[in-house]
């Protein structure tokens, strides 16, 4: 995640320790490696069931429940996450609220001192459910909105989905829950960025994450709708501009972009071009963040207990929490295993990534998308929109803490 509001506007945010506080030094690209104290956020696809038909769904939500972890198996999985020291447990799906015991599991996770967040389409959140979410102490609820009403409903495949999601946002806010938007960028909604920011101001929504499209699950079927390189640059610039405008209007928002890590050097280059006095401090934070963290700072556990490097990489199973604890699967990877490679990317990346001056900021971008597009695990991510001139520029300042 690239914190536009944190880096460009200098805002202090609740997740700063997760992004910038778990490495002791900002490392240049030739030293970029796994930080042993960095325990992963767990994206838990608690169910594959979903009540919508989203065109970009990486999980390809279906009605099947036959492979889902039982309640007791799920409790044991939570024990494993807590014992390993995972900082955040993100309940996702499918649609997590399709699972009847999801709030019981969330409550148990809170009792195990895990920070609990939800990623949901919001359509099943009632006033009573919002009240229980608040009582449990859930830190955050992210609700998917993919444009204004007509665009969103078309993207989600169910008429009325937008209004039901908007009602969930209001119910969460009324219950005192921090709530935000999750937007997947495509050519169908990029032009609606100003309207989305206006929605946030009108509804007093404090946080938004803009996701770049990843070509897995149903997302593979719409990869031709992904933004071009120039459109991606324009979208990121518009997000930066709209963020600044909201701050200037007295509506400071928490704004992040996700799943295209070249956003980090692009933001830094813009700040350097504009003569920002804190550009080098931002570079230092981006080096600490390290870019894509699949396989070390980010993990995924599926509805059947299978562990993956991230939620988009369904063809890379690492083990199953039905048979092993999460820590046994995730910790101490064998030499040359996928996890070991992901934690030592400079040894394995190819093409432009190998000599890119921004490798330490980007982390080789999104491997699942690169593999989906090229068939090569260490192939180039086609969503990288940086030019050859940009990646071959002068060496970055060596910044140490």
Descriptive account of the structure:
The chain is α/β, with parallel strands linked by helices. It is 37% helix and 12% strand. It has 17 helices and 11 strands. It has an 11-stranded mixed sheet with strand order 1-8-7-6-5-4-3-2-9-10-11. The radius of gyration is 20 Å and the shape is globular. About 3% of the residues have low confidence.
Structure described in brief:
By secondary structure, this protein is an alpha/beta fold. It contains 17 helices and 11 strands. Residues 22-34 have low confidence and may be disordered.
Supply the number of helical segments: 17
Identify the quaternary structure here.
single chain
Structural class by secondary-structure content: alpha/beta
* Largest sheet entry: 11 strands, mixed
Low-confidence stretches: 22-34
Strand order of the largest sheet: 1-8-7-6-5-4-3-2-9-10-11
Strand content: 5-15%
pLDDT averaged over residues: 90
Q: For the record, give the distance between the C-alpha atoms at the N and C termini, rounded to a whole number.
A: 22 Å
DSSP helix fraction:
25-40%
The count of strands amounts to 11
Globally, the shape reads globular
Note the run of SSEs as H and E. EHHEHEHEHEHHEHEHEHHEEEHHHHHH
Radius of gyration: 20 Å
Task: Lay out the secondary structure.
Blueprint lengths: L1 E2 H6 L6 H5 L20 E5 L25 H14 L3 E5 L9 H10 L3 E6 L6 H10 L3 E5 L4 H8 L4 H14 L4 E7 L7 H11 L3 E6 L16 H20 L5 E5 L4 H11 L5 H11 L8 E4 L4 E3 L10 E2 L5 H5 L7 H5 L9 H4 L3 H4 L4 H8 L13 H4 L10
Parallel strand pairs: 2-3, 2-9, 3-4, 4-5, 5-6, 6-7, 7-8
Antiparallel strand pairs: 1-8, 9-10, 10-11
Helix pairs in contact: 8-9, 10-11
